[in-house]
Specification:
Layout lengths: L1 E4 L6 E4 L1 E3 L4 H13 L4 E4 L16 E4 L6 E5 L4 E5 L4 H8 L4 E2 L11 H6 L16 E7 L5 E5 L5 H5 L7 E8 L1 E2 L12 H6 L1 H4 L17
Parallel strand pairs: 3-5, 4-5
Antiparallel strand pairs: 1-2, 6-7, 7-11, 8-12, 9-10, 9-11
Length: 220
C-alpha cells in the first residue's frame, strides 16, 4: 500500500501502487492492464489540488508522469514547443530560454506540470489573458479505452479534454504556443481597500494586477 498526500498536506490517500512510466508505451500498457483487471486508475500531477481528486482508492493505482518529461520539439519559426506531459513549468521555461521563447502567462504557483496545469484550469492574472490552456495548440491523449487521440483547438471536444480533470484519459503530449522572451517589472506594495477602489481603473491598464487580502484588516 502506497501513501500519497497533496502539497498543502490537507489530505492524503492510500493506493495499491504509484507508477512512474518513462515512455508512452509504458503508459499504454498500464491503461491496458488496469482495464483487464478492472483496477481504478488516477493520474497525479504535482498534487497541488486541495482535495483528493488524485486518489484512486486502496484498490487503485496512481500514475505520475514526473519521469515522462522531455521537450520533444521546439519550432522557433512558429514559436511552439511540444513536450511530454510530465514536464514541470520551471523546467520548461529553462529549456525555452536558449531559443529566446517563453510562456505567455503564469499563475502564482509555477511548479505545476504541464498536464496538471491544463487539466485543472490553471491560470495567471491579467484581464487580457485566458487560462493556461488558451495557449495549447493541441494535445495527445491515451483514452480509457486505450485509443490514442490528438485533440486540437479546432475539435469540438477540445475544451472537455483541455480541462478534463484527468477523467477523459491520460494526457501524454502537449503543444504550446509561446512568445518571444520578455522581462516584467514587479511592483509590490501594501494598500488600503479604499486606495484600490479609487485607483482600480488605473490598475486595470497594467499587463498584470493582483491583490491579496491581509486577513482581519482592510489592507491588501
Amino acid at each position: 500500500m502506497k501513501r500519497i498526500r497533496n502539497w498543502a498536506r490537507t489530505t492524503f490517500c492510500r493506493s495499491k501502487d504509484i507508477v512512474y512510466p518513462r515512455s508512452e508505451a509504458e503508459i499504454v500498457d498500464l491503461v491496458k492492464l488496469c482495464n483487464e483487471n478492472h483496477t481504478p486508475l488516477k493520474v497525479v500531477g504535482k498534487a497541488h489540488s486541495y482535495n483528493d481528486i488524485f486518489c484512486a482508492g486502496e484498490e487503485g493505482v496512481v500514475v505520475s508522469l514526473k519521469k515522462f518529461s522531455s521537450v520533444e520539439r521546439v519550432d522557433r519559426e512558429n514559436a511552439t514547443v511540444t513536450v511530454q506531459a510530465g514536464i514541470d513549468i520551471p523546467t520548461l521555461i529553462r529549456r525555452l530560454k536558449p531559443h529566446n521563447l517563453s510562456l505567455k502567462n503564469l499563475g502564482t504557483n509555477v511548479f505545476d506540470n504541464i498536464a496538471g496545469a491544463c487539466s485543472t484550469g490553471y491560470h495567471g492574472s491579467g484581464i487580457d489573458f485566458g487560462i493556461f490552456v488558451s495557449d495549447v495548440v493541441s494535445m495527445e491523449v491515451v483514452t480509457p479505452t486505450v485509443e490514442k487521440r490528438r485533440i486540437g483547438r479546432e475539435d469540438e471536444d477540445f475544451k472537455a479534454y483541455a480541462v478534463g480533470l484527468g477523467m477523459l484519459g491520460i494526457i501524454v503530449r502537449v503543444t504550446l504556443q509561446c512568445e518571444p522572451s520578455y522581462k516584467l517589472e514587479v511592483i509590490e506594495k501594501q494598500m488600503s481597500l479604499e486606495e484600490i477602489e479609487a485607483r482600480f481603473s488605473e490598475f486595470m491598464a497594467y499587463r498584470h494586477f493582483k491583490f491579496i487580502w491581509v486577513p482581519h484588516t482592510r489592507n491588501f
